[in-house]
Amino acid sequence: MSTTYVLREVRPLGGDPVDVVLRDGVVAQITAPGTADAGGAVVVEGAGHVLLPGLVDLHTHLREPGREDAETVASGTRAAAAGGFTAVHAMANTSPVADTAGVVEQVWRLGQESGWVDVHPIGAVTVGLDGERLAELGAMADSAARVRVFSDDGKCVHDPILMRRALEYVKSFDGVVAQHAQEPRLTEGAQMNEGVVSAEIGLTGWPAVAEEAIIARDVLLAEHVGSRLHVCHLSTAGSVEIVRWAKSRGIDVTAEVTPHHLILTDELARTYDATYKVNPPLRTAADVEAVRAGLADGTIDIVATDHAPHTREDKDCEWGAAAFGMTGLETALSVVQATMVDTGRLTWADVARVLSANPARIGRVDDRHGRPIEVGEPANLTLVDPSATRTVVGAEQVTASANTPFAGRELPGRVVATFLRGRATVLDGTPVEAVTA
Ligand SMILES: NC(=O)N[C@@H](CC(=O)O)C(=O)O
Ligand SMILES: [Zn+2]
Ligand SMILES: [Zn+2]
């Protein structure tokens, strides 16, 4: 017998309060506030709390296999649940690279065993991420992991003929190529955004054009072959303009922005604290405004965390030697609330779209995730207290790594509870131990 939950006086998508009953893995009942029968059920008091579909991350680095010292599937998915997620797509830049059916099935199985969220492995586009030969995309698609998203993330598929072939290939199984848009020659030795700050502090710059040139090329390739393209972690005002133009032409492109690119700027590089070293780099305040506007008007489809855990040895060193990347699963929703909801640019219904329904659709897991909150739907849900505030402490994060850029910052909102198919993975803001699938 599974536990029945009554979510008392919660506000689905920020709307009017209702009671929501979860039983046998689904939303069993939605009734007037205070009226659901609590007999035999666990009651979660939710007055003022917003109920969202479980969040879906299209871009998570879980590091297993290969860098279990930074994160494992178990620790990363636990962090995901704490952040309100019920599904994550695990990037392929592991060791070995997830470029065969064997490796994606291994990650898929580890996800099943973890039980915190559904793990959907992303397959590499090229063998070993080396940009030279296409990986066995079809074998990964047909595997038990049912891969639909392919990416060499961490590296750009820069050879245009390989990119074209990949876009053509994924069409046969409704897949998508998620591009890490970085022209390699324009970014050799790059350490941060190219601009006023890089010139002043003397770090090698990563120019906006290196991102924009690849996105422009790829939307044209996607149009030419009639395929589906997804742009990872878009970060510049020019990139937003190109995607807006491509969509106006009917090109089948979707785009993501990370929480950190919605709030942080390259001014932080002046600290020389490598926590702020990330790829693509933090950009200018004008870029931050442009990506917020692009997210608000639908040019940017989703927020994806690009959760990139790294060990202290790889981050607590001089800027030039440090790894690129920052954690994000446990702060994503709060950053979206701070930058987009509390500023009046998105409603909670919009948040459900950009952090759940749209990523579920792009990753083709929308039969289970990103669903409307209705009777009979799978109970993949997250309950948020938007009036709470918290100060982020790196060492208190659930992820196995401490490289959060928000340490010491006060952020709004707190994930109170997360449910995966009606089972609580988080209650009272704390992961529920001993979960099994
Ligand atoms: N974002 C990063 O700075 N790093 C990512 C790779 C990537 O997303 O490009 C990583 O794997 O660490
Ligand atoms: Zn990337
Ligand atoms: Zn990434």
TrEMBL record:
Which top-level enzyme class is recorded in the Swiss-Prot or TrEMBL entry?
A: hydrolase
Residues annotated as binding Zn(2+) 2 are D153, H180, H233
Q: Which residues are substrate-binding?
A: H61, L62, R63, N93, N279, H310, F324, G325
Per its UniProt record, the required cofactor names are: Zn(2+)
Q: Which GO terms describe its cellular component?
A: cytoplasm
GO MF, one annotated term: zinc ion binding
Q: Name one Pfam family in it.
A: DHOase
What does the UniProt keyword field contain?
A: Hydrolase, Metal-binding, Pyrimidine biosynthesis, Zinc
What EC identifiers does the entry list? 3.5.2.3
Binding, Zn(2+) 1 = H59, H61, D153, D306
Q: Tell me the Gene Ontology biological-process terms attached to this UniProt entry.
A: 'de novo' UMP biosynthetic process; purine nucleobase catabolic process
**Catalytic activity annotation:** (S)-dihydroorotate + H2O = N-carbamoyl-L-aspartate + H(+)
Q: Which residues form the active site?
A: D306
Which pathway does the database say it acts in?
Pyrimidine metabolism; UMP biosynthesis via de novo pathway; (S)-dihydroorotate from bicarbonate: step 3/3
Is ATP-binding there in the keyword field? no
Could you tell me what this protein does? Answer: Catalyzes the reversible cyclization of carbamoyl aspartate to dihydroorotate.
Q: Which family does it belong to?
A: Belongs to the metallo-dependent hydrolases superfamily. DHOase family. Class I DHOase subfamily.
> Which protein is depicted?
Dihydroorotase
